[in-house]
Amino acid sequence: MIKRIGYALAAPTIAAVVAILLSAVVLLINGSDPVVALQAVIEHGTQLETNIEALNRASALYLSAIAVAIGFRMSLFNIGVEGQYVLGAFMAAAVGAQISLPPVLHVLVIILTAMAVGAVWSGIAGVMKVTRNIHEVISTIMLNVIGVAGIVSYLLSRWKVEDANLDTKLADIPASGWMPSLNTWVELFTRDIKRVQLHGFVLVAVAVGIGYHLLINKTRLGFDLRATGANPLAAEASGVPPKRTIIVAMLLSGAVAGLVGLGQLLGVDHNYNLRFAQMLGFAGIAVALLGRNNAWGIAFAAYLFGWLERASGVLAIKGDAPREIVTIMIGVIILSAVIAFAVVERRRLADMVRQAAAATQEAPS
Amino acid sequence: MTTMVKEGTSKARLLIVLASMLVAVSAVQNFARFPTEDLTSSGTWSIAVAWSVPILMAALGGMFAERAGIVNIGLEGMMIIGTWVGAFYTLLAGPWVGIIAGGLAGVVAGAVMALATVTFKVDQIIAGVAINLMAPGLTRFLSDVHFSDRGGSITQSPTIVGVSRFSVPFLSGGNLFGWKSPDLLGAVERAHIIVLSDLAGVVRGLFWNMSWWTLALLLIVPFSVWLLWRTSFGLRLRSCGEHPDAADSLGVNVYLYKFYGVMISGLLAGLGGAFLAVELSGLYKEGQTQGKGFIGLATLIFGNWRPILTFFGALLFGFTETLRLRDPDAPHALLLLVVIALIYLAVRGAQKRNWVSLGVSALAAVVIGFAYFTSEGVPDQLPKITPHLTVLAVLMFGTRKLRPPAAEGIPWSKGEH
Amino acid sequence: MSETLAVELVGITKRFPGVIANQDVNLDVRDGEIHAICGENGAGKSTLMKILYGMQPADEGTMKVNGELVNFHSPKDAIARGVGMVHQHFMLADNLTVLENVILGAEPGHGAIDFAEARRHLDEVGEAYGLTIDPNDLVETLEVGERQRVEIIKVLFRGAKILILDEPTAVLVPQEVEELFRNMRELKAQGHTIIFIDHKLDEVLEIADRITVLRRGKTVATVEPSEVTTHDLAELMVGSELPSPETRESTVTDHVVLEVRGLTVDAADGSPRVRGVDLTVHRGEIVGIAGVEGNGQGELVEAILGIAPVSAGTLLLEGEDITKWSVRQRREAGFGYVPEDRHRRGMLLASPLWENTMLGQQSRVPFVKGGLWIDKKAARERSSMVVSDFDVRTPSIDVPAKALSGGNQQKLIIGREMSADIRVLIAAHPTRGIDVGAQAAVWESLRTARSQGLATLLISADLDELIGLSDRLLVMLRGAFTAELDPAEATPRILGGYMTGAVTESGQG
Fold first, then answer.
1. Strands B175-176 and B179-180
2. What is the CA radius of gyration of chain B?
3. What is the mean pLDDT of residues C42-54?
4. Residue B403: which H helix or E strand, with range?
5. How many CB atoms lie within 10 A of CB C241?
6. Residue C79 touches chain B, beta carbons under 8 Å
7. Fewer CB within 10 Å, N or C, chain B?
8. Any CB–CB contact under 8 A between A150 and chain B?
9. Residue-wise over B4-36: b if at least 16 C-beta within 10 A, else e?
10. Which residues of chain A lie closer than 8 angstroms to B125, CB-CB?
11. Residue B10 has what pLDDT?
12. C354 DSSP β-pair partners
């Protein structure tokens, strides 16, 4: 039992230690004092507002990572979450601005639009994989560019409205399509929150996380997905239809991806504009890797990343270290975590083989 | 050798394909609604050749890794590192040192990838993705530290200047010991003879106003052929991608050759990235690789893991990339070319009684044909995504029999057989 | 025969995690002899040979080659001392030419390969050994026997005088074995020393000059063929009575469970692999299919199970047309499957045993509740039951399948299929690569299931197993059934004749 916990904690600990050490080295080379930088980050990072912002960011990262993880669970690499969520949010914003419905229904239509668009965009990659065996890494990367630099960019230039600031953006979604902030609920337990709003969409992320956990671990479909990921040939022989499962996984992944940008859209901006957050799809891959495709692990990793990004903002203001150190730190965490997981996993397996062999006094195959 | 014979027949087929493409292009640009010379002008093709180089380097990089059995999705990240390091050392020590430095940085990134995948047996896709996630963060940090106070910013370097250019004497009017030689291909090109002038234009593009670095990197194509199929090193490297246990059983150090493969892969990707920044863009800029690493991987598939075919694939992508930089009428005329290609596919679908293929191709031909005749230009975004659409189209409709290395993508451990 | 020793191993010990593969093994091989090494699966024969070939280091012990103390760190060192090895699984890259495969690692020329020299040397070796294939052919175009010759030439090309052959006869039919033995005697006449692993005792007695027997990682004895009988050898190997796969007293009924009519299966490239075969399996019957590997047995199995697409023909399950059914529908209707390669098709190696117990039955009770959800508790109960009923030796049902030995993995697979509610069992090579004890258990399970009315289709390369278990034997050659035999009258030799096509049912070849 202790051993099992040890194995579970070993990899994240190794990754964290390596990342902190390497970041300190980089800062030293750069002529900054790592201790001072760390103190500044921690001081800023323990404030309520920082954590609210981190939570907003984390919920978007969480959805993105869940989208990636659905694919990962069956060894499908949906690198296209990036394109799927930008396209999904864009279309949802366009639809949401054009219709007027009662409050809850309006939001629901926007959400469903984003999920449908995301699913269609990932579904294309799924169809390409099952019909022509085109690796999803290639197709989704291409679809990212086509979706964002092609379709969104083109349609934005066609549909844009210009406001007083000459911003390029789509028309605003009417208030019936907004999602309220959760600040008043949080303030029941804490002091008043200044400046920032906790997105109501955080709740959707929580719901998706629970749904993901149940789907993967408790349902037949989840077992089929995992079996296919573990050994596609054995899964096929066991009765899992390989093509249909690929399509289903891609559609699910894309539908969740469609949700990624909605926190910002429904809670803050209420329109699609050029400041719309990008790169969340790629960050989601990192979060899913660090969280090991596990609903809880991903939640932890998403919050860690969200917090690091927000808390490090202070570095730029105080000026004693470049805040971009965080991008390096995140990179190092991912790579060392990935390596540490692989090494620990092999150790654990070898240990099990030894135990099993000792228990049966037979040669392993 | 049998493999050589197969190469030979595929070369003949390739020539036929290239020739028919030339005729089609020639026809299109002369009879398009807005006639353009740009599709086959030497100006276009000299740029196309240059722009094909980064994709070619990525593709060859992918080839060396995959021939050794490692799928290198991290090419994009390695290129990004190449762009930054290339620009930085060009700033410090000029373009020759700069691009070499970019290549060496790629080697380091390749070594990291090899360490993860070969030594620690991390899933190759995951390791590659991790490299791709790390690279932009690293370059952003480095830009902040090094470019911000040199007249650049966190997202780009100050402008830099590449190496000098040359034209080949006689063929395209280059200088020979200070004497300006006649420009034979140029003369043919300017004569405006259908097909012939077009051919001259395309060929002259290969010999005119070329950067020395372009030449140097293009020479890697024949060098790879020699290295992989004529040397012990190449045979051993390939054997690690085809059957690592067999290589191991004959005393080949499989881990070492996999390291070599991935490090060469990094070298080429780094060179490609540095070339992109230094020779093509004149500066480092965040996001300037635009997925060229991935397009390179697709090109490799298109080239069936062989250098020469891969070169032609890269040239195709270089060409589509060029259109974005040139005459706005050219992409419009290109639509017509796409319609011709689709009609060809439809006819072939009919011949093979593949009704789905026939239906899809015919429908697409009608839609694009309609768009062509009702529009006067194409949206600005289309040229930008043309390479990516081409990748998908080629992979979707290509019917070549592919032969990837048999053991690629599978983590290998000594003694587990 | 000279008395110098080509190979002398003293006190070799090799430990793997939790198991000792070799323990204090001694082996003397005289110069110029054919020395057989016998032992059951898992007796440590292959490990010992890998140590001698430098692929794995010994933990203890000394090795001498031609009287000199050696310490091999890689096959390269062994090759330099004139030791070469032909592995049981061919070490040939399909997409490289014969020449490239042969010269790999020993390429003539510095840097650039001297292809002319390579060709000359290959022709020289090939002539001495009788190679008739074009060195520029891709290996993928070669037959099994040709591949084995390329393997041996690969070793000779490197100037090996001591050849290790690891179960070379396992992939060959009896007629090809004779050809191999002729070649081995020829090599011996040329002065080569051959170490030869085998567990088919009649073959060993026929070819070997001396025989060393290993049991559970230890040397039991070294004997001369003239001194022993196959029975003596068998006792040395097993240490007790040999189990046999005999089945008698027929339980066959006339109730047809599985019927195959005119089944044709094409490969992806359109070439036919199974050509219009007919087949019926009755309740309580085991139908055995014999055939050289690659004659369509694999495709037949996959088509019956629904994995491979059927080009023509009909499949009936108790009269119902199931040709268009998916794999899952067939599984739910009661198809059990023991795959040829358990790691590829049969298990999730990294997943725990209890999840592996569900595999193939995950859409049926007791594993599903409410149509949608997995019943983990029931799955764990079933798993514990399989583990105890089928004697799967494991510390718990939570260890990953990878942790088990091959025999225990196979018992788990057989157990999970048998404990499900199945009507048809397709068993492909159910005892391949497992130890004697597990083999006997698998046979026992098959017999029990047969007596309970299961219709079984058995594909195996072990001809004794086929003859012993089957009620009816079919021979498959080039995608068609070429003979039907009564197992009571069949012998491995007769089967071998049909399998190679040397004998046909209508006439003699």
1. antiparallel
2. 22
3. 86
4. none
5. 8
6. yes
7. N
8. yes
9. eeebeeeeeeeeeeeeeeeebbbbbbbebeeeb
10. 77, 137
11. 64
12. none
B149-171 pLDDT, tens digit each: 888 888 889 888 888 887 877 77
Q: From the CA of A161, how many Å to the nearest CA of chain B?
A: 19
Tokens of B273: 């990235």
Token code pair at residue B366: 């009608």
Residue C176 amino acid letter: E
pLDDT category at B237 given cuts 50, 70, 90 is very high
Please indicate if any CB of chain B lies within 8 Å of the CB of C116: no
At residue B3, the pLDDT reads 40
Which residues in chain B touch residue C99, judged by CB atoms under 8 angstroms apart? 1
ipTM: 0.85
Contacts of residues B136-139 at CB distance under 8 Å and 24 or more positions apart, as own/partner, are: B136/A327, B136/B77, B136/B80, B136/B286, B136/B287, B137/A324, B137/A326, B137/A327, B137/A328, B137/A330, B137/A331, B138/A327, B138/A328, B138/A331, B138/B81, B138/B84, B139/B80, B139/B81, B139/B83, B139/B84, B139/B284, B139/B286
Q: What is the pLDDT of residues A194-223, one digit of tens each?
A: 888 889 899 999 999 999 999 999 999 999
**Section A330-337 average pLDDT:** 82
- Residue in C closest to A227 by C-alpha: C348
Give the neighbor-by-neighbor strand order of the sheet with C68-70: C19-30, C5-16, C60-65, C68-70
CA nearest neighbour of A331 among A292, A283, A291, A288: A283
Band of pLDDT at residue C1, cut at 50, 70 and 90: very low
Q: Is there a contact between C16 and A237 if contact means CB atoms under 8 Å apart?
A: no
Mean model confidence pLDDT for chain A: 87
Q: How confident is the model at residue B335 (pLDDT cuts 50, 70, 90)?
A: confident
**How is residue B285 annotated by DSSP?**
B
Joined tokens for residue B271? 């060179």
Give contacts of C 121-140 with B, CB under 8 A.
Answer: 134, 136-138
> How far is it, in rounded angstroms, from Cα C165 to Cα C196?
5
Which residue matches tokens 């494991």? C394
Q: Which of B125, B141, B294 faces A322 most closely, judged by CB atoms? A: B141
Q: What is B51-62 written as a DSSP string?
A: HHHHHHHHHHHH
